Amino acid sequence: MYDDKKKKNFSRYNKKPKPNAADIMYGIQPIVEALEAGKQFEKLFITRDSHNESIAEIHKMANKAGIVVSRVPVEKLQRITSKNHQGVIGFVPAIDYVDPQNVIATTFEEGKTPLVLVLDRVTDVRNFGAIARTAECAGVDLIVIPKKGSAQIGSDAVRTSAGALNHIPVARVDDLQAAILDLQGSGLQVVCCTEKGSKDVYYVDMEIPTAVVMGSEEDGISPDIIHMADKLAKIPMTGKVSSLNVGVAAGIITFEANRQRMMATQK
Q1: Same structural domain for residues 137 and 34?
Q2: Is residue 214 within 8 Å of 117, Cβ to Cβ?
Q3: DSSP 8-state symbol, 149
Q4: How far apart are CA 211 and CA 117, in angstroms?
Q5: Looking at the structure, do residues 201 and 213 belong to the same domain, yes or no?
Q6: Residue 62, class by beta-carbon neighbours within 10 Å (0-12 exposed, 13-18 middle, 19+ buried)?
Q7: Quick check: pTM over 0.90?
Q8: Which of 7, 48, 161, 251 could hold 134 in an S-S bridge, CB 3.0 to 4.6 Å?
Q9: Could you list the residue range(s) of the whole structural domain that residue 68 is in?
Q10: Which of 235, 210, 45 is closest to 144 using CA atoms?
């Protein structure tokens, strides 16, 4: 209901923007040194046919650090940069990721009621940036995304967020289901925004600690995550179009949580 179902039909017209120079690192030695220093990477591209021992070592180090590695044709590396990449390119995040449990603990310690936004495989960079901007304005304390199958957070995402990604904490986790269990263990209810919901979002109590889950542009929320939800909420719709952009849907539900909490403080 909240997915861009028609996106597939237009995918051939939507070319991915070329990464900015500030978003990438290339060359064997710089990548090795960065990995040894604990540098975060969104992902690594390694030339598919390489038998270089140093590149094999980079692959091993990246796997140990939980960094996504893709083996790609050398032509793909050449399209990203014409400089001497030596068969390896790393995508550098534009922000520093946080530990979700630290953020939740700090939020409670400050006397606040946590509001978390969990994005299940939102891959469009501009959608992600717009969601981050809305979330920051709505008072969301934390955004949680999976390492695999999520938008790359580079300068394009920061720019689209109007700088909000410099202010709102983002956690990137290996296992989204495990992260959701941790949120529930910390006392947060998990509300999945889905057309399968039995209640309108306006009738779901979000004055209590809450994690709102939004699904991907194409497939919505994973069934396994829906089964984990404490509540399923839907956005009531009266028009002929049956779906909303995930960024718009995220704005509706996070600002509804914001409204409920503001009203509670005025009672």
Answers
A1: no
A2: yes
A3: S
A4: 6
A5: yes
A6: buried
A7: no
A8: 251
A9: 18-91
A10: 210
